[in-house]
Amino acid sequence: MTDSVQPTVSVVIPSHNRPQLLVKAVESVLAQDAPTEIIVIDDGSQPPVATDGVLADPAVQVIRNEPAAGPTRARNQGIDAATGRYIAFLDDDDVWLPGKLRACLGAAGAGPDGAVIAHRTADGVVQPSSGPPRSPEQVTDPVRRFGRSQTPHINSLLVEADLAKTVRFDESFGAAEDVDFVLELAKRRPFVLLPDVYAVRTIDNDTSIGIAARIAGRERLRAKHRDVIYADGPSRAFYHVRMGHLHLTAGSRGRALRSFVEALRHDPAHRGAWKGIVATAIPRQALRPLSSWNRGRKAAHG
Q1: Of 60, 104, 187, 242, which is the most buried if we count CB atoms within 10 A?
Q2: Contact status, residue 129 vs residue 196, Cβ threshold 8 Å
């Protein structure tokens, strides 16, 4: 971006102690074919993010927090600093694939006014699709949709700046603030979902958010959005399946099993709940290769 070009998209990247991965994330944004400004929130990194190399690009602005304020506050700082028509988000250990912004901006121009655009993300190394983009799906009732299924990943969102600045991230969340943000957007606007993969997440990336905080975040989501994620049998079942997997990750097989059984009470045919019950009977060491295989299979099928 030059001084004479107004950015179409402001890209918010919070970062903490991942300098090499941050460079790759920024490079993936600079490779996009749309006018962008990149707002990196250096959230207390030690040493501070070095503003050389790709981070010295005129499109990049670095905002330093000292001490760290956390990713939720950092994203809000990026939203406040954004000057583009749209705002997008990227975690510092993930990357966008070529054509991501072109596809999202095209969908924004062709979809309902003010719609939030989202696309698929994948784990691991994924090659960009060589075929023509698949047709997007317009979701006129995203509240019902996201109450019963996984919300789009934060890396996939393209949101009108005015809407993002109105909604913001709820800083009372210690985890799951990204899901809360999506649900708040869904209560206000339709969504357009692109079926193609345009972002890649790091496999088994180290996270500073502990499992206890993630469980507490899900419980807070239920309290705040009970009308969405606990509205009917299928949504309640999905909630308890998610909780079951979190408890399983924490090593609490008894709590996990109770969560999966509770899910079946609300939706006896829920496949995820039945799979969860099976997972509780398999030793954790045996689950790891199965999980890795499943991620690879999903990535291969894009």
Answers
A1: 104
A2: yes
List average pLDDT for each run of 10 residues in the chain, which is 302 residues long: 70 97 97 96 96 96 96 97 98 96 96 96 78 88 96 98 98 96 98 96 67 96 97 98 96 96 98 96 65 49 41
- Over its C-alpha atoms, the chain yields an Rg (Å, rounded) of 19
Strand partners, 197: 120
Q: Give the model confidence (pLDDT) of 56-72 as tens digits.
A: 999 999 999 999 999 99
Q: Which residues pair with 88 in a beta bridge?
A: 11, 158
DSSP-assigned letter for residue 132? P
Helix or strand (DSSP H, E) at 100 = helix 100-110
pTM for the model stands at 0.90
CB 194 within 8 A of CB 120: yes
Question: What are the structure tokens assigned to 209, written together?
Answer: 């958010």
Contacts for 71 with CB less than 8 Å, ≥ 6 apart:
14, 16, 43, 177
Q: What angle do CA 252, 249, 173 make, to 5 degrees?
A: 100
